[in-house]
Amino acid sequence: MQSATLDLQSPLRALPFWMSLALVPMAVLSAVTGGWGVILLPASTWWLFTLLDRLTGKEEANPDPATPDAALGWYRAITLVWFPVQLALLVWLLWYVPRAGHLSMAEKFGVFFGMGVVAGTIGINYSHELMHQKSAVERWLADLLLATVLYSHFRSEHLRVHHQWVGTPGDPVTARYNEGFHRFFPRVLVQCRRSAWGSETAMLARRGLPWWHRTNPYWRYWVLQAGMLGLALALGGWVGLMLFLWQAVVAVWQLELVNYIEHYGLTRRHLGEGRYEHVMPHHSWNATYRASNWLLINLQRHSDHHYKPDRRFPLLQTYDEDAAPQLPYGYPLMTIAAMIPPLWKRIMNHRVKAWRRRFYPDITDWHAYNKAVNPRPARQVGA
To answer: Any idea where the domains of the chain sit in the sequence?
Structure first.
């Protein structure tokens, strides 16, 4: 691990993480101008930040992980204010775009593609940070953000399934070696909903409660999502509802692209009888590119996030290649590559093989790991 040298005390250190707010006027501009303006948001989040990564380089220093919450106010604030900002943007677009005579239907879908990029790149990512916190306010904000893209079950799946069983056959989100994204995406859409529901009902069953008990968070998920659908219909009519659904699809696609690259081909050692080794930094791909970590509030320091899930984003540590595998580029460029499976495999498969040689030189037969046919985790089977 790198030495702790970053000082988080200055508000100026937190300022780059507020760049996400610049996406809001871009979204407004794309709706007002139409035409080529509708590509502003995807061009910015993918290509501009790829260029900025090239210009700003890597941030390989680490903050003091013992920094108290009281010193992180400016970092926490951006995640706390984002829901009202995103909701205000979504409400305005749902009211304005269906009535905008200067926009063709293709341009309207283009504008809401950009809205989906905002909701997926920023909204779901911030909800991910918030759902890991103990504060009820932060967890509610996470649920509200996920409801805007109709993906509320992600909280249950992420906390109760993914973090426990990452790198094992019990985790749908761990992309298998040689599995292209276009096979991964429909698989996780089905399996994650099933595993999220199963995790919550199993927890209720252990307490002797039925699935319909009021403590099942799915009641909250359903009410919030129904409220968002009703809001879209009220503001934009049937066209608005259709556009709302479209931005939700785009946002979920963005999320699952990131999920795909975060653990591609990485597995935990099976110890026998459905037991697996503990999660370590080398079970997630790490990236230290400065600009894309500003945009994604250090999500690319994913190795440490899985090692210490309760650590707030400004305190996440980065690791060198001796401790964690390194992505060759930041997430914006890697997600583009993931959409082209032959290119992705050319970039990543030899890196997975090198990871295996470094961390598991004694394993010679990887077939069961490649196909996720090792036994499911014992505790999950008995849940």
So the answer is: 4-381
